[in-house]
Amino acid sequence: MPGQLFLTSEAFLPISPCCLAVANINAGSTTTSICRSLCRRFQQAASGLGVSPDKAKELSQLCGVSTTDEVGDGNVVVHVTMNKHEEEGE
User: Which domain of life is it from (predicted)?
Assistant: First the structure.
């Protein structure tokens, strides 16, 4: 996972491959179904890797990925994108 070092340590900023992955995930999250599936997978991976929810909440902003809502529960960009799709009525 490209963002693992940032999400699980004291690294101050995410590295470039991490931000590229965040942008790609956000761009590929085109339906509510996709977003929910990705969200579940990220939640499972995060719990096993010791991801810091606070750092996950910062990730999209630090990577410059535009989102419409705050990230909650450490679900990174997928959660934000899912909220966006639900607001759009998808």
Answer: Eukaryota
